[in-house]
Amino acid sequence: MFAEIRPVITSSVDGYNVCIIAYGQTSSGKTYTMMGPSNCIGVNLRSLKELFSVCAQRENIDYTMRVSKSDACMQLSIKYRVKLSSVTVIGTV
Q: How far apart are CA 26 and CA 12, in angstroms?
C-alpha cells in the first residue's frame, strides 16, 4: 500500500498540497493502516520518513513544512467529535 502513497509525498515536496485519508466502516482497519502495529510503522510515519528523505536528497533548498492530523468520530447522537493536532517543522533539512 505504501508504494501507492510514495508519489504523493514527492508531489508535496514539489509544492502541491496533498492529503492522505483512510476511510471506511468501523473496524475496517483504518487506524491499523495509518498507525501500524507495535512492530511495524504505519502509513503516517512512513510518509514522514519519506518526506524527510526526499527533502534531504534535494540540495540548496530550504523547506518549511506544516503537517496536521485530524480524527473525526461519528457518535450515536450524529454529532462529530474532531480532534486536531498540528506539527510545524521550520528549518533546513
A: 29
- For 29, the 3-state DSSP assignment is coil
pLDDT tens, residue by residue, 23-69: 888 888 888 888 888 898 888 889 888 988 888 888 788 877 777 77
Asked if 93 contacts 52 with a C-beta cutoff of 8 angstroms, the reply is yes
3-state SS class at 64: strand
Question: In the numeric block, which cell numbers belong to residue 9?
Answer: 509525498
Q: Which of 36, 11, 10 is nearest to 22 (CA)?
A: 36
Reported confidence tier of residue 80, pLDDT bands at 50, 70, 90: very low
**Cell output for 61:** 533548498
